[in-house]
Write a sequence for this structure.
């Protein structure tokens, strides 16, 4: 008979569990071999001084897990395994700790992903969050509409019409946890075997998402007004991804005439325009230009919007407005994809928009960013003067700085870094750096105070020895 | 000269905006034609009785938007558009309202996606949410680690080791807004040109995601113990997706011997096992069986877990544990994908786990579901007796009912529906219904009270005339 001498000393764990665990370990460590017969319940009960019931339950557990098997009229046996069970370790693998996010001692970070959080209405957001948590006890905890909450979509539709000139009903809107998630869904709706035209320079994330999803892309260079329509026409692209309100990264605003040309291009069958309006809320001169979506009468434009810039980045709420043709495809085949944004956040944002806080927050932010932008331009003029050109300064939360001191991009970034300032490369927005001339950096200013902006630019003057 | 007779009557909108808007509309409606010369600022100022500055700002706005253009020494002209601009409408499209989620007058819904929310610790969750909102004013509002919050990942790693026998460090965990989102990322990490073996019957959502992502899949039938390894070996699958803790939908628990065989299969180069442990927390007999991941010594298992069943579905927090080889690929090439779960929710869940609430919530839920499960089994015995077989009753939040009254699946569902009870088809878990014999329905019981469960089964007896 197999020798079983467990130490059953835990007061918190039932005896049968301790026993089963012990036997399991003996099997896994190879101290009891496959095929061996186990002692009868009665014998083991006497041997260990435990009740028959405890032994019985332990055996049942081992049986359920497949460690032992019962043979009719013969008793219980250790099961036979195919794998080399003795190599199984019972403790966590030792891992070389992998690097967590790099922490650098940087004083001023011109990160374009950051927004101003100093002026975020925290107490109000807290209050509305609590309201959501008390709402309909529990209802918001169940799965919601895969498209997103209707109430929130209605608010978005109203906002889009009033502020961005976009025309849609709530039924055309799909909410999602970020543009990357929505792009993945969108490519499914648009279908296979398309060629996507992307701006160069342009959002590297979109280019990567499309490539990672196995879509074919083609680079379309820009001219002064945005994507070059002639080059687009000469390409075989069926779908085009553009940032007309504020080209990323170069910042030009696509004029109405170019917009009309782009819409004209899309009239051909199976062509679509993806309009990414990632920071269309912020414009420093005059009124915002209406979105492409608002000018589209043929149902050719997909509008992408986000609350990352206008509210805060970590909330992960974005949305897309689909033309009727695509929303019908969605409703028919793709509602199997669950909504990716928490209903609680959707509900809180709905309350924020419905009660007018959203509009006043936007207004406050516009004023704030206009002031920061003004300070940035002034500091650049004051410290860097004619040694730099500013590109795309009419809107948004970033600018591109072309530096004329004969340093290449890498050098510019490195020198700045050594002075405690983080500025960002422009080359990543070019496909394989093609067409990139090498002396530009990206500066986001949304997350910095006016004092910091001024200090940062002053440090850049020293760093770049201008 | 163009006749301009705007009605500038809004008190809330600056005059220059009203004027620019008016001119824009005149252009868009075709009342002013492309190429026409605009009146000089001075002339229009006199004509309208407005300051020169107002006219100047309005013209600048129109110029910025591309509606008008300035020709040196000639003045301002309406821009020429390529598209047929006169068809542009300025008001929202009329849409046939699309159907929102169907509302049916159903008394008892055996939906397997629902969980018990009556016993959710709302006030505690609210308190922790508030703590998250007060934490480090603002820090949680910025974008976080693309993998997910380190603190939460540490809690998950500890929990997985203690409760599921899974062995990993926080560095191997990636958090995401649902299994579908994580599967999309995972297929990128695993790479192109793989053949995915999936259980039949099995999760239709996973099958669909894989197909929609353009991956090739092959159906591997089950036997009594789960996926048939012989059939798997004969297939050319490189990657296999399984639900060993509680096969979906059939509910069998894969015994240890089968698990070892599966791991053995995966030892070949470039093979992987995706283990979806969607409701492994709930098991009604004995201890849970350790996960495949915990038995894996070769780094071949990807473990998928979710808080949808164990916490609540709308929070949208899932995670995957990657072997070192895949986490390295992730860190090298895929951190460009932003985290899809709100940092606030991640932080609240971290607090919930850290302070032991998670463990006691799980314990409470286990007891609760065990009771509900008992009631369900009792009611089935009482009302339906030998007219049904119950499949997969050892764990999880659903069972499969095979009904022996000569009704097909559709009929069973329809009759139940007419009696106010919603039960669910099993055929959707078969690829093209292949191998499906047609008289089974799925019953989830997590979201129903014991009284409702009993009432529901009683209604089914009548509906099915048993």
């Amino acid at each position: 008979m197999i020798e079983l001498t467990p130490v059953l000393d835990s007061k918190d764990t039932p005896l049968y569990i301790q026993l089963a665990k012990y036997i399991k370990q003996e099997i896994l460590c190879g101290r009891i071999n496959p095929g061996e017969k186990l002692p009868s319940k009665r014998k083991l009960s006497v041997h260990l001084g435990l009740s028959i019931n405890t032994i019985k339950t332990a055996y049942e557990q081992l049986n359920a897990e497949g460690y032992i098997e019962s043979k009719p009229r013969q008793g219980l046996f250790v099961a036979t395994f195919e794998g080399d069970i003795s190599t199984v370790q019972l403790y966590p693998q030792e891992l070389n700790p992998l690097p967590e996010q790099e922490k650098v001692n940087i004083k001023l970070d011109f990160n374009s992903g950051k927004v101003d959080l100093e002026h975020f209405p925290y107490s109000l957001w807290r209050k509305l969050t609590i309201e959501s948590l008390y709402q309909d006890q529990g209802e918001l905890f169940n799965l919601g509409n895969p498209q997103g909450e209707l109430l929130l979509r209605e608010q978005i539709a109203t906002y889009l019409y009033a502020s961005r000139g976009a025309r849609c009903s709530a039924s055309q809107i799909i909410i999602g946890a970020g543009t990357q998630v929505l792009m993945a869904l969108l490519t499914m709706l648009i279908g296979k075997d398309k060629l996507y035209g992307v701006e160069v320079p342009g959002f590297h994330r979109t280019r990567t998402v499309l490539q990672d999803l196995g879509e074919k892309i083609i680079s379309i260079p820009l001219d002064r007004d945005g994507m070059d329509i002639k080059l687009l026409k000469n390409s075989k692209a069926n779908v085009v991804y553009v940032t007309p309100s504020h080209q990323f990264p170069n910042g030009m605003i696509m004029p109405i005439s170019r917009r009309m040309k782009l819409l004209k291009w899309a009239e051909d069958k199976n062509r679509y325009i993806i309009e990414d309006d990632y920071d269309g809320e912020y414009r420093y001169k005059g009124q915002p230009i209406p979105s492409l979506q608002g000018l589209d009468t043929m149902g050719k434009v997909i509008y992408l919007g986000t609350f990352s810039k206008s509210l805060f980045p970590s909330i992960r709420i974005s949305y897309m407005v689909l033309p009727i043709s695509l929303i019908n495809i969605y409703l028919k085949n793709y509602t199997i994809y669950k909504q990716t944004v928490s209903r609680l956040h959707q509900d809180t944002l709905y309350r924020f928009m419905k009660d007018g806080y959203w509009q006043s927050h936007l207004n406050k932010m516009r004023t704030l960013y206009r002031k920061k932008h003004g300070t940035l331009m002034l500091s650049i003029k004051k410290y860097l003067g004619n040694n730099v050109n500013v590109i795309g300064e009419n809107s948004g939360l970033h600018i591109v700085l072309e530096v004329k001191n004969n340093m290449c991009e890498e050098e510019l970034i490195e020198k700045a870094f050594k002075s405690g300032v983080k500025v960002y490369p422009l080359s990543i927005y070019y496909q394989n750096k093609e067409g990139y001339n090498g002396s530009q950096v990206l500066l986001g200013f949304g997350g910095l105070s006016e004092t910091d902006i001024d200090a940062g630019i002053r440090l850049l003057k020293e760093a770049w020895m201008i």
User: Anything to note?
Assistant: Chain B touches chain A through 106 residues (CB under 8 Å). Confidence is low (pLDDT under 50) at residues 84-103 of chain B. The radius of gyration of chain B is 31 Å.
